[in-house]
Amino acid sequence: MKATLRFQDRIKGGQEDAMSRSSQRREASKSPARGRAELAAEFLKRNRQYRSEHARMRQRIARGAVAEEAAEAAFARRWGLSFRLCAG
Question: How far lies 47's CA from each of 9, 30, 53, 66, 79, in Å?
Answer without folding.
Answer: 14, 26, 10, 24, 11
